[in-house]
Structure formats: C-alpha cells, structure tokens
Amino acid sequence: MELTTSQMMTILLPIALIQLALTITALIVCARAEETRGPKWMWVLIILLVNIFGAVLFFIFGRKQA
Amino acid sequence: MSRWLVLFGKEWMEMTRSYKLLWVPLVFILFGAMQPVTTYFLPDILANAGNLPEGAVISIPLPTAEEVMAKTLEQFGTIGLLVIALSVMGAISAERTSGVTAIVLVKPISHLAYVSAKWAAMLALILIAFAGGFCAAWYYTAALFQGVAWQSSLIAYLLFALWLGFVGSLTLLFSALLRSGAAAAACALGIAAVLAVTASVFPKALAASPGMLPKAASAQFMDAASASHPWLAAAAALLVMAAVLAIAAWAVRRRPTLEA
C-alpha cells in the first residue's frame, strides 16, 4: 500500500494508545488491589503478555469482589 | 421513581468500581478500529508472514467499505457478545452469593425494580460501548476505504445494539436462575448461537426470530432489500426482553439468598 510512514503512524497510533491505556489501567488496578484471585505476579505476566485479552481476563476473573 | 434511580445509581457505581465502564468500551473501540485496519493491511501482513515461495503473487480484491462494516459487525457478534456475557454474568448470582441481594431487598423495593435497574445499567453500558466501537469502525472505514451512508449505519447500529442488549438480557435472566455465573454466560451465548444459526438457515420461517437481528444489521450495508422485515424480529426481541425482566424478578423473589 502506498502510505508514507507518517500516514501509517496516524492510523496506528490511536489504536496503540487505546491498547496501552487498557494495559496500564489493568496493571494499576492489579498493583493496587489488596488481593487478586491467584498470585499477583501471574496476573502481571498475563496482562503484559496476552495481547488485549490479558487485561480483559484480569478484569473479569482476576479481581476479588470486595 | 426516585427509589429506582437510587438503585440505578448503585448499579452505575458498581460498574465504575469494577472498571466495567472503562474496559468494556475500550475493548469494543479496539476491535472496531482493528477490523478495518487489518483488512486494509491484509496483503502486507500476508506478504510479511513468510512461508510464501519467492515471487508468489497475492491478489486480494480490496473489499468495499460496506463489506468492511458488515465484517466488523460479525466481529462484534462474536467477541462483543463474549465480552458482554462475561461482564454481565455475575450481575445477580454474585450479589445473591455475597448477600447483597438480601440486604437490598430488605428495603421496601420491588423485585422488578431491583432487576430492571440492573437491566437498565447493563443496557446503558452496552449502548455506550457499542457506540464507541461502531464509531471507531465507521471512522477507520471512512479513512481507509470510503464513507458509509450514515442513515443505513444508524439503522444497523440500532438493530445490532438491540441484539447485544437481547443477549445481555438473557445473561441477566440466567444469572437470576442459576447459581453459577459461568453457567449463565454459557447458557446465554448458547441460546444466542442457536438463534443466529437457525435464523440464517430458515430465514423465511423464522423472520420474527431475534436471531435475525445481526443478519438484518449487516444487510443494511449490503442490500437493504434482503432485510425486508427486521421490525418483526426487533419487536420480538423487545417482547422477550420484557418477559426476561419479569421472569428474572420472579426468580429473585423466589430465591433472594443462596440459603433460602
């Protein structure tokens, strides 16, 4: 496709930023949680390594109901 | 009404505290934006994936903007439904297990108000998240392919949002009937799959099945003529949603706590 690098960036940057926001919120929530379901380091690895779904998995299954 | 608003406020606060209000829309936006982008770059992705003999020529016809939007709806029909079912599955069963239901219902509140506040909050979440995802898809399709008429897009949005809300309501119902949240999500997704498949196999006989809704929504982009009567299916979905609320309220009345 005939796109310049800057055009590519304008297309891909918003997506990358949203994904970054999702990952970072999940990490912050995980770090601040008193307890998670399962060890915390495992959730950190899942959030960082599993693309997009890592954060989703943490939000659905990782948090303990207060 | 003011009591109902308090209940609604409680559900809203629960969604903020559990970060649902944040991550569900973000996930929808991500998938909505990624579908047009990956479709656009598919030839490049294939070319860089390797395993192709030297000089292989890949020619994939560039899909039209309408096809991309229909494809995005398909994506929301799988991942979107999964996300919704998973985020709604504990709505009643988890509160029943933790005893919140019993505490709330000590107050002079009807069971229907308790269930319908949950339902309204869920619907608001779905509408917000899907609007974000749909707008992202629309924007990227317009930027990379071509603009899509907003009239048909709006109808497609409403039809598909109704389908998402329908499946969310089913999840809420099973959450009230069953003990386990996972089972509730599985039941709702199973019924949604059966409805969608039967509706696409027998489109004539099941014109009024809510399973027609996702098909009718994509048909808005392809040729509006083939989806002549989505209104029957939409009306049926609304009726089922009302029935679901009544049954869920009855189930909560019958068994407000696990012990009872």
Automatic annotation (TrEMBL), chain A:
<dbReference type="InterPro" id="IPR027379">
    <property type="entry name" value="CLS_N"/>
</dbReference>
<protein>
    <submittedName>
        <fullName>Transcriptional regulator</fullName>
    </submittedName>
</protein>
<feature type="transmembrane region" description="Helical">
    <location>
        <begin position="43"/>
        <end position="61"/>
    </location>
</feature>
<keyword id="KW-1003">Cell membrane</keyword>
<dbReference type="Pfam" id="PF13396">
    <property type="entry name" value="PLDc_N"/>
</dbReference>
<feature type="domain" description="Cardiolipin synthase N-terminal">
    <location>
        <begin position="21"/>
        <end position="63"/>
    </location>
</feature>
<keyword id="KW-0472">Membrane</keyword>
<keyword id="KW-0812">Transmembrane</keyword>
<keyword id="KW-1133">Transmembrane helix</keyword>
<dbReference type="GO" id="GO:0005886">
    <property type="term" value="C:plasma membrane"/>
</dbReference>
UniProtKB/TrEMBL annotation, chain B:
<keyword id="KW-0472">Membrane</keyword>
<feature type="transmembrane region" description="Helical">
    <location>
        <begin position="231"/>
        <end position="252"/>
    </location>
</feature>
<feature type="transmembrane region" description="Helical">
    <location>
        <begin position="76"/>
        <end position="94"/>
    </location>
</feature>
<dbReference type="Pfam" id="PF12679">
    <property type="entry name" value="ABC2_membrane_2"/>
</dbReference>
<protein>
    <submittedName>
        <fullName>ABC transporter permease</fullName>
    </submittedName>
</protein>
<keyword id="KW-1133">Transmembrane helix</keyword>
<feature type="transmembrane region" description="Helical">
    <location>
        <begin position="154"/>
        <end position="174"/>
    </location>
</feature>
<feature type="transmembrane region" description="Helical">
    <location>
        <begin position="181"/>
        <end position="202"/>
    </location>
</feature>
<dbReference type="GO" id="GO:0140359">
    <property type="term" value="F:ABC-type transporter activity"/>
</dbReference>
<feature type="transmembrane region" description="Helical">
    <location>
        <begin position="21"/>
        <end position="42"/>
    </location>
</feature>
<keyword id="KW-0812">Transmembrane</keyword>
<dbReference type="GO" id="GO:0005886">
    <property type="term" value="C:plasma membrane"/>
</dbReference>
<feature type="transmembrane region" description="Helical">
    <location>
        <begin position="115"/>
        <end position="142"/>
    </location>
</feature>
